[in-house]
Amino acid sequence: MSEELELINQDTESLMKKAISHLEAELVKIRAGKANPNMLEGIVADYYGSPTPISQIANVSVLDARTISVQPWEKKMLQPIERAIMASNIGINPQNDGNFIRLFLPPLTEERRRELVKRCNAEGEQGKVAIRNIRREAIEQIKKLQKDGEISEDLAKTAEAEIQEVTNRFIALIEKHLETKEKEIMAV
Question: Between β-strands 50-53 and 67-72, what pairing exists: parallel, antiparallel or unpaired?
């Protein structure tokens, strides 16, 4: 197989791995009834005029299965962190006692669990779309090589089949992640 095709295969697989990593990061943010410090990933608070992730300005820990504790390293950061959590729309109201911010996760209702599963499926669909777009771009590169006369038609067909095989493998991985997360959410 030509060097160009090898490079296309490597790039495609690398990009698809990044898409899977992104999906995993998004699924971690969707709560499944248990407290998880990663739920606050991506939430930024105003720290002296610059948006800073909460994990960089406070200690985030899990007190029990339903409680997250946020202890800022500076007392005056309590208000900005509290505002950032409220604005983030994660569905939890912070409780500020002057030293800590506590987040109490309410037990999930059946209806809320179904909403979370829908959200997971939407994230999964976005992941699949990303994987398919990566596949499309790779196949376009292969067709361009064939059109330019750098590879034969047979070699192009083989390369396209390999790209499809990689795509199928990553789509199956997305399905597996979604199935695992759904079981986690629906477990009472």
Answer: unpaired
What's the DSSP call for residue 66?
T
Contacts of 131 (CB under 8 A, 6+ apart): 16, 19, 167, 170, 171, 174
Q: Which CATH class name applies to 37-104?
A: alpha beta
Question: 166 vs 5, 7, 19, 137, 140, CA distance in Å?
Answer: 14, 14, 13, 14, 16
> pLDDT tens for residues 139-160?
999 899 888 888 888 888 998 9
> Counting Cβ atoms within 10 Å, is residue 98 exposed (0-12), middle (13-18) or buried (19+)?
exposed
Fold classification of 3-29+109-186 (topology level):
Topoisomerase I; Chain A, domain 4 (1.10.132)
Domains of the chain, by residue range, sit at 3-29+109-186, 37-104
Residues 114, 147: Cα–Cα separation, whole Å: 49
Please compute, for residue 188, the number of CA atoms within 13 A of its CA located in the half-sphere on the CB side. 4
What pTM does this model have? 0.71
Task: Note the helical H segments in the chain.
Answer: 3-29, 54-57, 78-87, 110-147, 153-186
Q: How many Å is the Cα radius of gyration of the chain?
A: 22
53-81 pLDDT, tens digit per residue, is 888 888 888 888 788 888 888 888 888 88
Contact of 155 with 1, CB cutoff 8 Å: yes
